[in-house]
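Two proteins were folded this term; both appear here.
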Amino acid sequence: MNYPEVRKQGILVYRALPEPQILLLQRSKTQEWAPPQGQAERGERNMEIAFLETEIETGLNPGDIELLRGFRTEFRYKPIKHYVLMSTGETFKLNEGFVAWRRVVYFLGRLRNPEKEVKLSAKYSGFKWLGFEEAIETAIFDDYKDLYTKAKDFLKLS
């Protein structure tokens, strides 16, 4: 069967401190930690939606973030039907059935002011800044591990 595809875009935001750190948001429903991302509507361009969703979810506007040319990565996944909360072990259903593949495009952006305040949207319960190695080690999904590794390599961090 040929399923439709939902396009999502986001920006992996990092701040250039002595040890660069990436911004991860905690989804209220699943407790999953991930960079900001959002679904594209018909006719929206990848970069437009990436900036828009990052602003909606974090309060960081396009002027706060310098997009790094040459970094663009994407992955495709099939949503899972059940999710286990990491904190409690509770299992709950995300959806009744598989309806569409997800294609996620990420760009890499440097936060111009490393002290800029993050203001979360209601769909998130928290945020944290992690070094690249810690983010790679703690990522639940391989796609995120690959994203963080590619960004680290792009920035030539050892």
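Next, the second protein.
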Amino acid sequence: MDVTLFHKDFGYVALVGAGSSLVTFYLAMNAGRARAKYNVKPPTLYSDTEQTYNCIQRAHQNTLETYPQFLMTLFLGGIQHPRLCAFGGCVYLAGRLAFAHGYYTGDPAKRRWGGFGHIGELILLGCSVSTALHMLGVI
């Protein structure tokens, strides 16, 4: 396949995208372990009695809820700004891990530990808008 369509630095974006799969897998494994530990049987998503399980499950679920937007902005913005988007993607993923580990404490307020991940989201969004405006010839 001819990959000259993309700047060679787009490989960094591809690596961050692949790494994001490992992050979601890690969160899924933790949710699965918690399901077994707290005896929450499928298809039940949340427990009426186990707050810590709910926090672990919620960390995974919340990540999945935002994952399509993350991938879209990572890859779209990465066309024009590959290194900046790779950096923004890493910040986002580190934020997701900090968010999850804060949530894993059983205290939902500690999920804010990952708040810095929003900086990564803003970088990716800005790069995506910039890419679109370049494609339209506006800038």
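The first helix runs from residue 10 to 37. The chain is about 70% helix and 0% strand. These notes refer to the second protein only.
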